[in-house]
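In this section we turn from sequence analysis to structure. A common task in structural bioinformatics is to predict how a protein folds when a small molecule is present, because the ligand can shape the pocket around it. The inputs are simple: the amino acid sequence and a SMILES string for the ligand, here LARABZUK. Study the lines below before reading on.
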Amino acid sequence: MSNTLLKYCGNKTLLDYQISLQSNADYIGFVFAASKRRVCPVNASNWVEMNPPGKKKLVGVFVNQPIEEMIDTAQRVGLDVIQCHGDENVDFMRRLRSRFTGEIWKVIHHKNEDSVYSLVAFQGLITAVIVDKKIGNQYGGTGTSFDWSYIPAYLKVSKSLGIPCIIAGGVNDETINELLFFQPDGVDISTGIESNFRKDKRKMTLIESMVKNHGKQRTS
Ligand SMILES: O=C(O)c1ccccc1NCC(=O)[C@H](O)[C@H](O)COP(=O)(O)O
């Protein structure tokens, strides 16, 4: 079996969430930030109450939002992970760390080599890093990849900090084999598991078989 962590993000309806629940994903994400995938905490909390996530962990995605809002949403929905997907700085992350006992993930929007080393400043404050692509004021969910030749550098730095490195942006059934070649710790997908803006079970199954087969090749 592959040990690559899998997160399915941007679950926008009860049906999306139920489809993700039936998948082999480790993490299920809700976007609580400005986005076409934004969900309201009351709806997400009702869905979770009706369909408890079992062993899967719930992730809330936020972009430059107040800590109080993150904590309220985390408590209401029962989030295991707060994912800061904006321009949150070290001081903000330190304050969040002192208020939230669960996992905290921080995005790095890859621009250039400096982006790789910007991760070091968050040492001790975050439990995983997500590397993603930002386009204009679209902080995530763009369906577009950053320059993957930088992945080995991100993996090296995150390993030295003792945290997993999760790759996001433009991952789908046509690109995932190329990504798995780099052996990331985790993969985060939103657009690539959708058809007509709704989560697609068939695409998830295809991606999961590729992740599983890749794991087999690595260990045999
Ligand atoms: O998904 C969004 O709409 C979104 C909007 C604003 C900030 C973050 C967002 N998504 C965060 C994620 O974790 C996505 O899975 C990640 O950006 C990858 O997206 P995609 O390229 O669509 O697979």
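The mean pLDDT is 96. As an exercise, try to locate the residues that line the LARABZUK site and compare them with your own expectations.
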